[in-house]
Amino acid sequence: MSTRAEAGSTEPAQTEERALDLAYDVLQACCPSRHALEHVTGRWGTLIMLSLREGPVRFNELRRRVDGISEKMLSQGLQALERDGFVARDVLSAMPPRVEYRLTELGRGTSDQLKGLALFIEARMPEVEAAQADYDQAEGA
Questions:
Q1: CB within 8 Å of 13: residues ≥ 6 apart
Q2: HTH hxlR-type domain: from which residue to which, for each copy (predicted)?
Q3: Does the 32-140 domain belong in CATH 1.10.10.10?
Q4: 1, 42, 96, 98: most buried by Cβ count inside 10 Å?
Q5: Coil, strand, or helix at residue 78?
C-alpha cells in the first residue's frame, strides 16, 4: 500500500479496492467468470449442483436424480464443474473401485444461491405460466 494511504488518506486504498471489484466482469466477453457462470447456470449445471446438495453420490445415482440427462451430458457437466472447483471427484478404494461426486466448499456456497433461485422460481410459477399464456395468446392472434 502506498505511503499516502498509511498517512491517513483512503484514496489509494479505495482505488485498489475498486480495481479488485472490477477485476472480473461477467458482462465482458473476455472475462473468465463468464465460463464459470455458464457451467453453473447452464441447462444441466444447475440441476447437477442441486442434486449434489444431498451429499456424495455415484454417477448412476446422480443420473437418476437428474431426470432426462444423458450420460454424455452428465459426464461433460461434472467435468466442467470439477475443473471450475465446484465439484470434487473422489475415487474410493473398493473392489470394484467406486467413484463419488460431491460439492466442494465453493460448490456448496454456489448451490445455496442456486437453491434460493430455484425456490423463488418454483413459488412464482403461477405468474410465469400466466405470462406464458398471455404471450402465446398475443402471438397467436
A1: 1, 5
A2: 31-129
A3: yes
A4: 42
A5: helix
From the list 23, 19, 39, the residue with the least C-alpha distance to 31 is: 23
**Tens-of-pLDDT digits for all 141 residues of the chain?**
344 444 444 555 555 555 555 688 889 899 999 999 999 999 899 999 999 999 999 999 999 999 999 999 999 999 999 999 999 999 988 888 899 999 999 999 999 999 999 999 999 999 999 999 999 999 986
Please provide the distance, in angstroms rounded to a whole number, between the alpha carbons at the two ends of the chain. 64
Non-local CB neighbours of 52 within 8 Å, separated by 6+ positions: 62, 87, 101, 102, 103, 107, 111
